Amino acid sequence: QVQLVESGGGLVQAGGSLKLACTISGRIGRMYAWGWFRQAPGKEREFVAAITWLDERSEYLDSVKGRFAISRDSAKNTMYLQMNSLKPEDTSVYYCAATWGLYSTNVRIDSNYNYWGQGTQVTVSS
Fold this sequence. Notes:
Blueprint: E1 3-7, E2 10-13, E3 18-25, E4 33-39, E5 46-52, E6 58-60, E7 68-73, E8 78-83, E9 92-99, E10 115-116, E11 120-125
Parallel strand pairs: 2-11
Antiparallel strand pairs: 1-3, 3-8, 4-5, 4-9, 5-6, 7-8, 9-10, 9-11
């Protein structure tokens, strides 16, 4: 069984920063990638960023490029999302997820992920 636990959410003013963490436990094996998604009230869940486990290739939602940075610490089985220059429109519940897909897996599609965390709230005030 695999578990993902997020932490680091909170309330911040526009322009501020937060750093989310996601720790994975259990049988990781040949995990392909893990990513961050977010969902605001009344909206569909959207891809934010992802990073591959072995070679650390990353992808980002266009609106967060240059502001967010995804990274991982394999020794700690932890993934991070550093969020800078936060905007009110970044307010959402942020979820981390992990996928054991193949090399060609589209990491931007949530249905390609096998396990999910419980989510952490990020609120950006104007």
